[in-house]
Structure formats: structure tokens, C-alpha cells
């Protein structure tokens, strides 16, 4: 299959490109910079220059491909409305290009806010509806286009897709621990985060593109929920720092913007995903990655 991938040079995207190529697929990756283009070409992928604000490039990539994987996101935490706007506009362009084709569109989504008091499940619909909602309501927008002949698939990623070199949410929490001299968790730390190793996430994306029926919601969660106190204690051991509870009202001051999320429960089951795709995660756990030094450089002086 010829697959068009946005976010192809990113943390999950670069692993996904490698996974697709190893499985015999052809890949065209969207690249907004010369550095990204060179990285993609060195992996054996074709390159299409453009970004999320280039609808013409997105349309060309989607129309020329037999399947689309949309992983790009601006992740502008200082201006989330801009990220949400760009995400919705990009997905609108992609689904319009694929309408009536029965070709697959697998797009990245998240696990936050799916359920109250229990782990989220694949059957839980996203509460983000409309352009003013998180991610611009892109998951529901894409799934709505199943009725228009698009094989839309939502891949909901755990809040931490971890591994050596990860610069995501856990890296920010580690950086806060270095900065503050204490590894913190919010409240009593019993709220839990789902987690998945990068290699397992990439394999799920490939399997989902190949196998998942239209309208499927997939959960990229190898661990259903790691208590945030356990995460803080693992970071404390790795950095030889004390561990302490941070009051919820002080979380943003202590951690930065990530404090708004570290106090949330973002646990999720992936039982249906595993059964549907035959997906069996094999990568290290989050605590194992922290202990192995995956975040040794996060927040450290240059």
C-alpha cells in the first residue's frame, strides 16, 4: 500500500514510517523543513514538502495515496486554540480528499475525558464535538465521514508514548523535578496514566491501517494505568531526588502547563483493540524505561 503520513518525522511518526517500510509499504511523508525531508529520505520514504497550514499539499498527498495516516499536530500549548483550529482544518481537507474512495484514514486522537470513575474503553465516544472543542473535534469529524465512503479509524494514544529519547509529557515532568529539586505528583497520586512504548504504538498504527474496519476506535495503551505517584517515585529514584505530593492548586506553578494534566486520570483499556488486531505489546513498561535512563537528559543542563 502507498501510505501518506503527516507528522512523519515526529516521535511517533518516524517510528511508524520505519514500521510501514519494514512491512513492505511505500511511504510518502509530509515534511515542513529540509531537515525533516532529509530524515525521511534517508529512511527510504518519499517526501512531500508542506505542513498543516498547506491544504493543497495535504490534498495532493491524500489523493495520490492508497491510505493516509494523520499524526501531525502543532501542540502549541501556549495557544491551544490555534492547534485545535489547524487540526480541524487539516482533517477537513483529508476527509474531503478521500470522500467516496473507501480508502483508510487513520488519525491520532487522545484518551483524556472518555469516562468518569473507570478506564476509558474503545466504545466510549469522544466528547470533543465541533470546531471549538479539543483537537477541533477531529475524531468525530473523521468518523462522521464513514457515511461518505472514508474508512476512518481513530487511534487514541496514551498520554505517554515513551522510549529512549522521548521529549513528551514525561520528559516535562522529569524536567520539573530537576528544576524544583523534588519529584512531585498531584494530590494523593492515585490517578493513573495509560502508557505505551513507542515501538508498540507504531505497530498498532500499521495494523490499524491494514485491518481496522471503518468507524473503529483503537486504544494505543499497553498499560491500562500507571499511578502518577508510581511515576513520580520512579523519577525520584532515577534522579536521586525526594518525592512529594503537590497540592492541586499548585500543580501548574510546580510543573508548568503539564500540571493541568498530571492530576487527571487518563487510564484506558485496550482489550478490544488487542482482540481486533492481534496486537500484543512487547516493549518496556514506563517504569522500566525511566529506570533504564530514557529520561536521563530531560531538563539537564546542555
UniProtKB/TrEMBL annotation:
Pfam families: Epimerase (PF01370). Residues 115-137 are annotated as: Disordered. Residues 3-212 form the NAD-dependent epimerase/dehydratase domain. PANTHER family: NAD(P)-BINDING DOMAIN-CONTAINING PROTEIN-RELATED, PROTEIN YEEZ. Gene3D superfamilies: NAD(P)-binding Rossmann-like Domain. This is Oxidoreductase. It comes from the Bacteria.
Amino acid at each position: 500500500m502507498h501510505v501518506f503520513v503527516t507528522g512523519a518525522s515526529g516521535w511517533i511518526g518516524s517510528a511508524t514510517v520505519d514500521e510501514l517500510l519494514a512491512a513492505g509499504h511505500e511511504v510518502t511523508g509530509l515534511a515542513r523543513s529540509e531537515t525533516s525531508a532529509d530524515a525521511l529520505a534517508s529512511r527510504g520514504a518519499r517526501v512531500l514538502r508542506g505542513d498543516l497550514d498547506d491544504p493543497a499539499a495535504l490534498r495532493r498527498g491524500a489523493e495520490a495515496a492508497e491510505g493516509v495516516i494523520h499524526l501531525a499536530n502543532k501542540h502549541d500549548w501556549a495557544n491551544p486554540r490555534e492547534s485545535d483550529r489547524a487540526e480541524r482544518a487539516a482533517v477537513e481537507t483529508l476527509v474531503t480528499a478521500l470522500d467516496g474512495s473507501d480508502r483508510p484514514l487513520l488519525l491520532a486522537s487522545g484518551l483524556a475525558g472518555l469516562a468518569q470513575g473507570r478506564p476509558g474503553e474503545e466504545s466510549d465516544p469522544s466528547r470533543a464535538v465541533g470546531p471549538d472543542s479539543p483537537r477541533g473535534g477531529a475524531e468525530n469529524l473523521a468518523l462522521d465521514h464513514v457515511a461518505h465512503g472514508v474508512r476512518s479509524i481513530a487511534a487514541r494514544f496514551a498520554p505517554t508514548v515513551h522510549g529512549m529519547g522521548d521529549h513528551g509529557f514525561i520528559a516535562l515532568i522529569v524536567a520539573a523535578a530537576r528544576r524544583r529539586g523534588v519529584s512531585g505528583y498531584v494530590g494523593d497520586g492515585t490517578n493513573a496514566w495509560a502508557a505505551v512504548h513507542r515501538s508498540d504504538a507504531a505497530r498498532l498504527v500499521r495494523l490499524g491501517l491494514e485491518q481496522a474496519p471503518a468507524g473503529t476506535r483503537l486504544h494505543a495503551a499497553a498499560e491500562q494505568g500507571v499511578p502518577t505517584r508510581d511515576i513520580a517515585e520512579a523519577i525520584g529514584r532515577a534522579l536521586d531526588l525526594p518525592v512529594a505530593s503537590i497540592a492541586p492548586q499548585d500543580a501548574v506553578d510546580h510543573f508548568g502547563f503539564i500540571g493541568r494534566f498530571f492530576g487527571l486520570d487518563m487510564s484506558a483499556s485496550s482489550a478490544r483493540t488487542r482482540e481486533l488486531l492481534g496486537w500484543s505489546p512487547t516493549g518496556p513498561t514506563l517504569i522500566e524505561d525511566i529506570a533504564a535512563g530514557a529520561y536521563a537528559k530531560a531538563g539537564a543542563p546542555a
